């Protein structure tokens, strides 16, 4: 079994001090800075959305050490590989040098505290996502480490990721066979919906899939995959049942509007099937008999990859979901698709 | 029945870009275009949903080998259907979008008589039952690798200039068919700026 989305949380800012220059340690200490604020907005500390009760250790934050991950996920689930994501909110920082230093520190912490402590683990590198030159610099610095299989792209970004200023970043990733990990999260001022901010937590949390759909549309329309045919994108925590519906609509529009984007030589849904995969958590599950039908919309068994999204709680009925899949599809969703996608 | 000829009008009366529709004695409407100096004729009925092709606009074929690079094919020989924008090559009537799945070979200018396209060619309508549709889609993995020729094709007619008159040649009539369902109402046109 492969789990494509487990989280590593920075226990406290001091955990990064060994990986920061003295300048930045001093900078942080002088200000009593506690870290980027964004994740705490989206995952309030006591919320079970942030961490299941049974995954909250005494005297430490959830998902703050490799030991907890082993105890809660790797050993009980008999996991072959798990992909560690650190959603720290670096993209919210506006200080370009500080953001770059912090991204480097997080990547070095991932290597030192996670990848080197359990060879079942792979990780997603983070980047200072407001600055393409700095992104490329960080990819060149750590992207060749064999433990990194993916780069973290928060779904709420100031500019849509498909736009041309990012194509150079994607080329660097494709050259190293690194996957683009489009993941829940984003800039402090990034709205979850296409038309702005929500008033309630439940509303904000539920609206986030819209930004995923917008990013996917951008990546395809802008011709990223025409220019970089080897590029692969994982949609993590973005849901998945929306994509066939999106694809049918886009295919229809493309037939009449394709001359505007002549670099699209195939229907958008076809491009999506070749270049995108989706993590299963959270599962957009309806009643089982309707869900079984909806899963047929996806059209093949290759598109989904299992994820627990540890330590979050999504109230997913994983057993119920898996019971709707054929034995062959289950094997693909639980391991084979991710193994092929991440070259594990 | 032998091939019939219909005289449309004097060639000199057609300016480039002009179009005229004619009706045959058995009620088939045919649109004749003068486009880029040449004359073309098509059945005035989009095989997709039945729109009047005489209301279509000509578009330039545009292709691209890389993002931000455009290959502008100067000749305006692609007719975009007024309803859904699907493009047809007026020289052959060939559609380049196929909602049902693609067969790998393009159709020649001659009308095909294969069972699969006979109905579309005869009536300008798709005639797949839901199960046939599903089978055709499954065969190509759920989507076509377009744009490339599909089975949809508008019937085209030979146009010649005889003594400076434009003449459309009709083919021999086909065997009688079962009556077709009524043509859908044209949607209300939205104001387009």
UniProtKB/TrEMBL annotation, chain B:
<dbReference type="InterPro" id="IPR017941">
    <property type="entry name" value="Rieske_2Fe-2S"/>
</dbReference>
<keyword id="KW-0001">2Fe-2S</keyword>
<keyword id="KW-0479">Metal-binding</keyword>
<keyword id="KW-0411">Iron-sulfur</keyword>
<feature type="compositionally biased region" description="Basic and acidic residues">
    <location>
        <begin position="182"/>
        <end position="193"/>
    </location>
</feature>
<feature type="region of interest" description="Disordered">
    <location>
        <begin position="173"/>
        <end position="193"/>
    </location>
</feature>
<dbReference type="InterPro" id="IPR036922">
    <property type="entry name" value="Rieske_2Fe-2S_sf"/>
</dbReference>
<keyword id="KW-0408">Iron</keyword>
<protein>
    <submittedName>
        <fullName>Rieske (2Fe-2S) protein</fullName>
    </submittedName>
</protein>
<dbReference type="Pfam" id="PF00355">
    <property type="entry name" value="Rieske"/>
</dbReference>
<feature type="domain" description="Rieske">
    <location>
        <begin position="6"/>
        <end position="118"/>
    </location>
</feature>
């Amino acid at each position: 079994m492969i789990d494509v989305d487990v989280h590593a949380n920075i226990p406290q800012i001091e955990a990064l001090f060994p990986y920061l220059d003295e300048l930045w340690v001093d900078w942080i200490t002088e200000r009593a800075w506690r870290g980027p604020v964004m994740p705490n907005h989206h995952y309030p500390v006591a919320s079970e959305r942030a961490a299941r009760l049974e995954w909250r250790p005494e005297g430490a934050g959830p998902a703050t050490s490799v030991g907890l991950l082993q105890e809660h996920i790797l050993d009980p689930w008999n996991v072959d590989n798990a992909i560690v994501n650190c959603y720290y909110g670096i993209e919210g920082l506006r200080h370009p040098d500080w953001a770059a230093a912090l991204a480097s520190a997080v990547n070095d912490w991932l290597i030192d505290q996670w990848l080197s402590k359990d060879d079942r683990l792979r990780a997603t590198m983070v980047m200072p996502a407001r600055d393409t030159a700095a992104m490329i610099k960080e990819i060149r610095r750590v992207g060749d480490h064999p433990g990194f299989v993916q780069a973290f792209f928060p779904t709420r970004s100031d500019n849509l990721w498909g736009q041309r200023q990012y194509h150079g970043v994607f080329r660097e990733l494709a050259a190293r066979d690194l996957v683009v990990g489009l993941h829940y999260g984003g800039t402090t001022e990034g709205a979850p919906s296409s038309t702005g901010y929500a008033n309630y937590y439940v509303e904000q949390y539920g609206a986030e899939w819209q930004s995923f759909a917008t990013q996917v549309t951008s990546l395809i329309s802008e011709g990223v995959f025409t220019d970089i045919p080897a590029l692969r994108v994982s949609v993590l925590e973005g849901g998945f049942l929306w994509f066939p519906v999106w694809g049918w609509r886009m295919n229809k529009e493309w037939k009449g509007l394709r001359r505007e984007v002549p670099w699209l030589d195939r229907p958008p849904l076809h491009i999506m099937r070749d270049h995108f995969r989706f993590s299963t958590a959270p599962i957009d599950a309806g009643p089982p008999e309707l869900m079984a039908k909806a899963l047929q919309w996806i059209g093949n068994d290759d598109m989904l990859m299992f994820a627990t999204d540890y330590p979050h709680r999504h109230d997913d009925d994983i057993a119920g979901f898996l019971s709707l899949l054929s034995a062959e599809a289950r094997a693909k969703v639980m391991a084979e698709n991710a193994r092929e996608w991440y070259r594990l | 029945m032998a091939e019939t000829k219909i005289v449309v009008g004097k060639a000199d009366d057609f300016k480039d870009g002009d179009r005229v529709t004619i009706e045959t004695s058995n009620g088939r409407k045919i649109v004749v275009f003068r486009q880029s100096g040449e004359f073309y004729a098509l059945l005035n009925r989009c095989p997709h949903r039945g729109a009047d092709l005489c209301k279509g606009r000509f578009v330039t074929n545009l292709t691209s080998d890389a993002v931000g690079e455009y290959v502008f094919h100067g000749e305006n020989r692609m007719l975009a259907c007024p309803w859904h924008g699907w493009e047809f090559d007026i020289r052959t009537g060939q559609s380049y979008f196929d909602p049902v799945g693609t067969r790998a070979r393009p159709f020649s200018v001659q009308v095909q008589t294969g069972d699969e396209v006979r109905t579309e060619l005869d009536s300008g309508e798709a005639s797949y039952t839901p199960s046939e549709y599903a089978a055709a889609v499954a065969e190509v993995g759920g989507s076509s690798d377009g744009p490339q020729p599909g089975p949809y094709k508008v019937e085209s007619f030979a146009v010649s200039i005889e003594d400076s008159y434009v003449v459309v040649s009709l083919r021999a009539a086909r065997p009688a068919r079962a009556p077709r369902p009524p043509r859908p109402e044209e949607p209300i046109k939205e104001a387009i700026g």
